[in-house]
What we know:
Layout: H1 2-16, H2 19-36, H3 46-49, H4 53-58, H5 67-75, E1 85-89, H6 95-102, E2 107-112, H7 115-131, E3 136-141, E4 153-159, H8 164-180, E5 186-190, H9 195-200, E6 204-211, E7 215-221
Parallel strand pairs: 1-2, 1-4, 2-3, 4-5
Antiparallel strand pairs: 5-7, 6-7
Helix pairs in contact: 1-2, 6-7
Amino acid sequence: MRWWHYLHFFIYHAWYWNIPLAWFVLEHEIRGEHRYGIRTTQIIPPSKIAATLQQKLHAEAYHPLNYYIAEQLFQHLPQGITHGTFLDIGCGQGRLLCMAAHYGFKQVIGIELDAHCCLTANKNASITQQQFPDCTFDVIHGDASVYSIPTAVQVISLFNPFDDILMQCCIDNVLESLAQHPRKIWILYASPLYEQLWLQAGFSIEHTFSKHRYLQASILTNHY
């Protein structure tokens, strides 16, 4: 079954982008799943993720952030940041949650709309917690657009989980959390289609990453 997911992953990327990118992603996919000991290679259409018609209008298909870009994002965070809480919005099957533990975070939260993905994320978190027993995982089954960002959160990751309307709701939630507890916060934004919304909200770009043209990400921070 795992090899079917890898094949599907390759065909998906080759069809929508190109074969060199598909090979690059697949290589890092197999290497990353082995390195972190988890199973998160799967593509799920929005029709199977969203529970209501309104959610289906705004949701995007689930496929995990490729390991290459994810590792670039983690490696460019400032030292000492792992003392704060890591939040993955649209955590899917828990890839970035588990990677956050490997990079030293002790408090990790994920919020995900799909119940089945939440179950898989919890399974992957349990595997990772055996390696990092001092890391606390919390996978929340819910709608990120109405989720109140805990004031302990210092790093937020997103991989194009929804459209611009819900992204603005997410930004508003972050700003509300910052108003309650002013602090420096880092946004790890992969496939940053709505980056301009964050810039308009007062964030600035610290780093940008690009590979094979289509694999892109940014790290944004607020002024504090």
